[in-house]
Amino acid sequence: MGEVAVQVKVMPDTPEVDLKKLSGRIESVVLRNGRMYACEVQPIAFGLKALLITFIVEDKEGGSEALEEAISSLDEVESVQVVAVSRML
Fold first, then answer.
1. Proportion of the chain above pLDDT 70, given as a percent
2. How many distinct helices (H) and strands (E) make up the chain?
3. Can you give the residue ranges of every domain in the chain?
4. What fold is seen in the domain 3-87?
């Protein structure tokens, strides 16, 4: 079975959240669902920033759902949105 790249936007619940620590917690939570490939901070507005994270997961039905649920379960996470999914070649 192949792999896909899943890019998600993670919105913290307040602008005061330490995004570096949050990304580390996210990485440790999703280890069983995939692996983190890239992470960048994306400015939104009025000092609020989001994490734009790319994960590599198995290409199977519901592959990104487990990833979203694992991230959503963390404190300090307001929302998780899948931005893009692409097949790895």
1. 96
2. 2, 4
3. 3-87
4. Alpha-Beta Plaits (3.30.70)
Reply yes or no on whether the pLDDT at 12 is more than 80: yes
**Residue type at position 20:** K
Q: Is residue 74 packed enough to be buried (19+ CB in 10 Å), middle (13-18) or exposed (0-12)? A: middle
pTM of the model: 0.89
For residues 2 and 87, what is the distance between their CA atoms, to the nearest angstrom? 8
Do residues 26 and 83 touch, judged by C-beta distance below 8 A?
Answer: no
Q: Which tokens in the block code for residue 56? A: 């590599």
Tokens matching residue 63: 């592959």
Least confident of 12-16, 38-42, 43-47: 43-47
Q: Note the helical H segments in 1-89.
A: 19-29, 63-72
